[in-house]
Amino acid sequence: MSYINKLIYNKVNQKFFYGWTIVGIGSLGIFTSGAGQSHTFSPFIPVISKDLQLSSTSITTAYMIATLFAAFLLPQIGKLVDRYGPRIILIYTTIFLGIGCLAFGAASNFLMLAVAFGFLRFFGQGTLMLGSANIITQWFDKKRGIALGLMGLGFAFSMGLHPLISDFLISNYGWRNAWVIIGLSTWILMLPPLIFLAIDKPEDVNEKPDGIKQKVINKNTKIFGLNLNEALKEKSFYILSFSFFSISCLVTALHFFQVTILNQYFSLPSREAAALFIPTMITMIIFIPLAGKLLDRFKTHNVIGTSLLVTTASLIFITFSSNITFAIIYSVIFGINNAFNLALFGYIWPRYFGRLYVGSIQGTGQMVLVVGASIGAMPFALAMDLGYDLLFTIRLSALYPFLSAFLCFFFLRESQKLTDMRNQK
Known about the structure:
The protein is an all-alpha fold.
């Protein structure tokens, strides 16, 4: 932490808890991760397919291979976050994400596209989201749900704005120059707050999470939690991984192919299909803080189960979007779905495994999620290219989150070991 960081902290913390500044940085990080998110790619897919003469399956394969490669590196990133702190990891992540945007704009064949996808997915959808959630997790405990919910607003704005921005940039500057602009914007938006405002954890400035002042810091007793090996022995880790794998698979597929589905199967113009991300964004802005409050107030496993039922409803409703009214209803339900998922994204790992080693645990958990994101779009792509009934495929896939909801309602509980740690705190 630099002298400038401490100076700004002292100024800001006199007026309000500095953790809310960290929430702002985390939210901006989630917004900036849009450069590596599926909803940003959605308007580019038809243009890239035509320009590079690649089928939907080929593009999805490049996306899948790259995302899989990125996924298996995330546990190592989690360990680096635990060792060096999220701030420095986020700075390097932002630099490489911008480079990935420039590389994507220069792609001229399948291999280059796959490599560029790898950069964007690893540093955007993977590391930038992991680091943003981690730094907020360190600053909050009892208010963690609402803090991470507010962080999710960054994704809401990204989901609403990035597809429209992408469509505008493609129309006016071409898809290649669009990625150059996105890359430069990534650096401009994210690097200054990370360098001058970010602080890894409240203990670095003699505080506890939620703004509780302390005179003496004892790092061995102030933070508790299971380590990665202990977490991997817990039933809750596998229920969470199984459940959020379903969300990662299927929500990514909807992001990736929403424009294509509504355009090709329901004859909705591409611009209107992209514009449906706007009601989704508005719904997310309304529901994300509510989802955070629900997490702080009600039993976590019930909130997770409810969110999985909303995911099920999202998949069902897009298959009935035969007119603009039904399409808007779908977009609102999808917004509620994303609100729950984003509030839960960084919340579940410290909730069930503690804060001490949350980086390595979240990195491993997020590896599972990113693997899901990598393969989630493939069944939809194959259904389209091979002439199968895509709408039936989507309805059938809705059984997965429904089953996951059942597991969470009835079997997901906190481990006794973590309960004992909380009681001894």
